[in-house]
Automatic annotation (TrEMBL):
Record bears the keyword Ribonucleoprotein: yes
Highest taxon, organism lineage: Bacteria
Protein name stated in the entry: Large ribosomal subunit protein bL33
Family affiliation: Belongs to the bacterial ribosomal protein bL33 family.
Originating species: Alkalibacillus flavidus
Alphabetically ordered keywords of this record: Ribonucleoprotein, Ribosomal protein
Cellular component, GO annotation: ribosome
C-alpha cells in the first residue's frame, strides 16, 4: 500500500509537489527539485 505525501521547499516552505511512498517507510523523503517560487533548485522535504 502506498501513501500520498506533500513535499515542501526548505527555503520558502511552499508545498509544490506530491508523491507516494511505502506506508511502512519511517524515514522522511528529501529530494532536490525546482521551486517555482524561489526560481531555483532547492531541497524539498516531506511534510505531515
Amino acid at each position: 500500500m502506498r501513501k500520498k505525501v506533500a513535499l515542501a521547499c526548505t527555503h520558502c516552505h511552499s508545498r509544490n509537489y506530491t508523491t507516494e511512498k511505502k506506508q511502512q517507510a519511517s524515514e522522511r523523503i528529501e529530494i532536490k527539485k525546482y521551486c517555482k517560487r524561489c526560481e531555483q533548485h532547492t531541497l524539498h522535504r516531506e511534510t505531515k
